[in-house]
Design goal:
By secondary structure, the chain is of the alpha+beta class. The protein has three domains: 154 residues, no CATH class; 77 residues; 123 residues, Histidine kinase-like ATPase, C-terminal domain (Heat Shock Protein 90, 2-Layer Sandwich), CATH 3.30.565. Helix content is 63%, strand content 9%. It contains eleven helices and five strands, in the order H-H-H-H-H-H-H-H-H-E-H-E-E-H-E-E. It has a five-stranded mixed beta sheet with strand order 1-2-3-5-4. Helix 2 packs across helix 4 and helix 2 crosses helix 5. The protein is elongated, with a radius of gyration of 32 Å.
Amino acid sequence: MNASITVPDDDRPPPVRFAFDRHTWKEIAHLLANLPVALIGFVYMAFMIFTGVGLSVTVIGLPFLALGLAGARGLGKAERARARALLGIRIDEPSPLHSRRRGQREGLFPWLWTSLKDPVAWRTVLYEFIRLPWGVLTFAVTLTSLFVLWPVLPFIARGLTNADRAMVRGLLSPSDELERRIAELESDRGVVVDTAAADLRRIERDLHDGAQARLVALAMGLGLAKEKLSGEALDTTAAAAMVGEAHGEVKLALQELRDLARGIHPAVLTDRGLDAALSSVASRCTAPVKVTVDLSERPAEAIEGIAYFTVSELLQNVSKHAQAKSVSVDVWRADDRLLIQVQDDGRGGASIDGGTGMAGLAERLGAVDGLFVLESPVGGPTTVTAELPWRQRAKR
């Protein structure tokens, strides 16, 4: 997601005065720089457009135009920086043009097509063409006023720079809220991909270090028992002991596989829903937990799973860190949102960046357009409120 530029809370310029304060001198500097900056931009745009269109009948024409539009984006970025520095306006950067998943390559034709229809670059082209006559006018008026209309120059500078501000906002700002939303979704997609990869690594590690190791030991134990029973030196007592050990390994391996399956998607959640699944999780918490689920119907499986694992991780945090005597879990629906609230009377002091997994939970919820709010003063109580979009469960 694109980060906003840190500027004063009030985006409006200070009231104009006869005195030549620093704001007025910045505006004058901006107006005097308009001509050389506009001239550079106009020459670049004219060369890029006319050369690209002229070469469009050849193989290199469209790629040349696409590269030129990428350069136009760079000019737009420089103009936004100049406006922020000299005109003091609040303006965000547009979302990146080419965003893709890690490890994926973008082909030539998709890159070309995306570049040629880039609205940010084309608005910058229009901005640079408009700026040349405007730059000539503002340079001439400001330079003349410095020697002829000095007493009213602050008012002239303010009027001209207000027009500059309007042009920058109109042509160089991100298109609309949709473009900001696209940038947020691109960032959220990266979070989802990273989370899925981390989960796959965890499952692989648990299988390798747990059930797989026990099954290897089981196979070796049964092999030794077989030798004791089939060799010349028959030893039924030792074989029976080895089979008994193997039976114990089988039970442990089955328990680890059940725990692993529960961590992926518990059967009780699939069969009986959030109420039963959260009650099962609550029974493993070190503090007494009161679970209240007020849902007239079940949400979509993906949302239900996220809600389950959110509560599960929060209760694990309570067991590990909170030293709580009681915990409450409430789940309900409000319009098109699924709300979750987990509260404990523990020691408090939890934070998003406190290393307890809260940041990961917030990212996971944000990736599906959810919200995560943590209130945990030192001494408690700790209240976590999570929101998820309500999506209807698919009918089977």
